[in-house]
Amino acid sequence: MSKILPAPWLSLFLLVFWLLLQNSVSFGLIILGAVFAVLIPLYTHRARDFSIRVRKPLILVQYAVLLLIDIIISNFNIAAVILTPRRKIKPALFEYPLDITGEVPITMLASTISLTPGTISAELGRDGRSLLIHALNVHDVEAVKRQIKERYERRLQEIFQC
């Protein structure tokens, strides 16, 4: 049974969440939700192999709130760039040196960068010590690097002590 349903509580949560998102209950939606609730934990089981030890959970909450605020502000900034046709954009592709170590903290930083509109983590360096980042509108690459270091990477170092 554990091979088919490796995380029963997660599967139950996914099924309930799916039905809440649909805002209705029908036989077809229950079947489709059940299929997703079984397949998603099966597909993502390898992610549970990584042990995550959060050393400072309050800073993690602060990080999540900061990220949410940055996502909202970035949405407005990108909307301004798109809606202002005469405004010149300066895209940039740059390498960001990493101070953090560990697969989970680096993944969180790369995901944070990609979640913020206007930036995306394109590639992790072969040595695992840098990220290739594309930004839609950058006037000063060094300022963007400092901002990432201060706002995100420093906090991740505190959260995971890496």
Automatic annotation (TrEMBL):
Record localization: Cell membrane
Membrane topology: Multi-pass membrane protein
GO terms for cellular component: plasma membrane
Gene Ontology terms for molecular function: monoatomic cation transmembrane transporter activity
Main location per the UniProt record: membrane
Record keywords: Cell membrane, Membrane, Transmembrane, Transmembrane helix
InterPro entries, alphabetized: Cation_antiport_E
Highest taxon above the source species: Bacteria
Ranges annotated as spanning the membrane: 12-40, 60-83
Family per record: Belongs to the CPA3 antiporters (TC 2.A.63) subunit E family.
Matching NCBIfam families: PRK08965.1-2 (NF006518)
Protein name: Na+/H+ antiporter subunit E
Organism: Pseudidiomarina taiwanensis
